[in-house]
Amino acid sequence: MTHKTHRLAPAVLVGAALIVCATARASLPACGYEITAVIEGPQCPDALATVYPYALNDKGQVVGNFFCPGGMSDWAFLWDDGEFIVLEPPDADADECRDINNASQIAGTGNGPSGDEQGFFLDSDGFEFIEIPEGGNFTRARAIGEDGMIVGFWGNWKTGDPSREAFTWRDGVITPLGELLAQPQSIAYDVNVNGQITGYAGDSYFTDARAFI
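Below the sequence we write its predicted structure tokens.
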């Protein structure tokens, strides 16, 4: 697999900032912060891009998405040591990057080759889109662990069967978690270095949800 990147000239407007703690003195109740880098979005045809960073790793690499004001499209990006890189999979679209681990592996979501919304895994070998289980019409990636495992949710926006069901994905295999969680709706939001997953499950996304680990 391969992926292409498109590098855009930075705009003058600050889109986001990378901030680090300015002191390591543990005795202080709160450390001071300073801006160490500015993430500048690209110039759109009529205005400057709006940039949303979602995650960063220990290398200081940042991922997220950006869009042109008034537009209907989003684009995924990676910011790496001052370079703003638009991530473009072949024959598909990458709308957002949600997480990046310390191996620079990325989890995100876009319009896959099938035309449906699909989560994706991205590393130095390129993009791999997350297969939609039978009966669904989308997958969405929310986080990636240090071992490359992605968590997120899938479902069917049209039928609501299921509306949202948490999953794990690793090495091309998606594993729905609905039976384990024993709830009609669920979303997996994050995974730690020990493989523990957190999210929510319940009868309703808005009114009867319970967090889980």
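The longest helix spans residues 178-181.
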